[in-house]
Amino acid sequence: MRVSITTLLLAMLLSLCTQLESFAQSVNAFAFKLKEPIVLDGILDEEIWGEEGWNDNFTQYFPYDTSAAVAQSRVKIAFDDDNLYLAAVMENTGPREYVSTSLRRDYRGEQNDGISFVFDTFNDKTNAFQFGINPYGVQREALLANGGSRSEDLNLAWDNKWYARATIHENHWQVEAVIPLSTLRYKDGAQNWNVNFYRIDSHNGERSTWAPIPRNFSIISTAFSRTLIFEEPLRKNSANISVIPYIAGRTSQNFLEGTSESFTPAFGGDAKVGIGPALNLDLTFNPDFSQVEVDQQVTNLDRFEIFFPERRQFFLENGDLFASFGHPLARPFFSRRIGVDRDSATGQNVQNKIIYGARLSGKVTDDWRVGLMNMQTATDEDRGIAGKNFSVLAVQKKVFSRSNVGFIFVDRESLALDEYQSIFNPNEYNRMLGVEYNLASEDNRWTGKALYHRTFESTEKEAPRTLNAYVLYSDLHWRWSISYLDIGAGYNPEVGFVPRVDYKRFNPDLGYRFFPKSNFINSHGPQLEYELRWNETLGTTDRDIGLQYEVRFQSLAQFTLGYTNSYIYLFDDFDPTRTGGEPLLAGTDYTVNRYGFEFRSNPRQAFNFRLEGEAGEYFTGDIATLRSELAWRIGYTANIGMNFSYNRIRLPEPQNDADLLLVGPRIDLTFTKSLFWTTFIQYNNQIQNININTRLQWRFAPVSDFFLVYTDNYFPDTFASKQRSLVLKLNYWLNI
């Protein structure tokens, strides 16, 4: 009997160990040490890609998050002293066509087929590297910040060298990739990272992940990643130094001012230097951003400055460390202020040459992250512009599981135009000091922020500070937040973005989402928003009450209906059409009601669109608005788009009526994976301008490009040119 009991206990123990081992394998990934080199061809015939050790059992993220993926995938990881190796097999339910919106690197969008690999190399579940590839071998790489809570936290502007091949088979497609370890930042001797993989399958309209992510959070969320265990510790075996020189030439003509610039050569470059295991030093000398695409124009019916995102490559890598501070309405640092100044003769903003820049950023320890940047612009005596020096220090300390405490200091010093003064004008400085707490709970349900910032200038100002407290709760059904913002009258971060000061803002909102059992509707629900702004002098200056109902379909289409009641007090004269008409007088106030809708079609279709409309009262009159974005995809070689905005404004005399039209056709051709041609035309009758920007890009080597960019601006009525330019630029990425 004892033997039987002993045998039974041993059997139970063995079964338990087997289950525990199976469970451990299901929640951990393993990276195997490579003993023999592989041939990067997308054919998984090497011994390392054998049957054992695959990470499979992907679960759905969309349309549901409670079932296994219909189209299953599996991933395997290997490494050696120099590289990380990835293999992935994406199965299908049968032969099919794949969707790739383009052959251009850094594709984005839920309509694309693709597999993405996310590596959190410091195990903070806040920042990560992402690499992706689609069935046609188009690659993308990105940096993930702020826990991936929003789509904006995915920064595809980050570029680096890595290699991948994809092959398409009858019932699956597969990937083989090599990522140099020098591309990544990680702790020397590390033996585990956090990792996740996710796949977008256009045929089934399915998004799936290896580590399950609740569908009320973003698919790029890092809070739910699992552990990747290396067979032996990773070592830093080589220096990571890259030099990226460029040569460029430019010619331009300004017909408004009667000036021209003959073909002018220029040269400069960037360097990237790895310092220790986790810090990166970025250097730039005489940077040139002429290849950066122009901003997409908008019709401005607001009383304040409009925010446009940063597009210049140097400012984007690790940009979240500097740009994530503050509130969207009170940003202490906005990198687009660097390289732009005001012409003292015309009062217009003009480009101001950047002489050099340096940025040190990255991890100091597992818990400490630091960023230090210094930029110098040139003096332009003809325009009365003094050169300026910009310095930024940002420090973050991880606390609890995923939260952090941050500190930021921004300093702008102006050079003295008088040669007898010191190098910096002692009265022309602007400084900002701020501290923040960023909340992110382990399960990602609670996020929030608390901050206090203060500016310093040579003249004392009243209330030169801002403070904000914000908390957001989100689960499968409920989503609510509450925010309080107080911006003092004297708060003036001149290197930041603050369109308005001297007010307090209270902003709660509440939403609920239903998930019906339906083959047609994925989810639907209402959201109520309230926003109140006031100050001590005027009392209430703005109030918005908004109610909307959103329906998301299984096809990925969306439809929203909305209603808004608004109160507006004008503390300055304001022309509602911004066309030079008779302004409404300061001290007047208005209560208006508007109704609106928005529809986004299935993005997986070759032709898809977004249509948005709004109608109702507008100050003393009424307004009707129609906006659309049309997109037509022709295979993966051509994308033809059209942005359209029409505002019909009718106001009683003496104010102007207006019909404001903004049309922006765009043609994007990708001849091969290395040759691209983009043309963007914008007609805006609010500023009476037609802009043409056409850009040819040839990627002749990894992360190395030749650009040819032509830009022209015309008067719409006569088609007479205002100003035009032609730029040629060649840059080459060299690893040392």
From TrEMBL:
Keywords: Hydrolase, Signal. One of its GO terms (molecular function) is hydrolase activity. It comes from the Bacteria. Residues 1-24 form the signal peptide. Pfam families: DUF5916. Residues 241-646 form the DUF5916 domain. This is Hydrolase. It comes from Algoriphagus formosus. The lineage of its organism: Bacteria, Pseudomonadati, Bacteroidota, Cytophagia, Cytophagales.
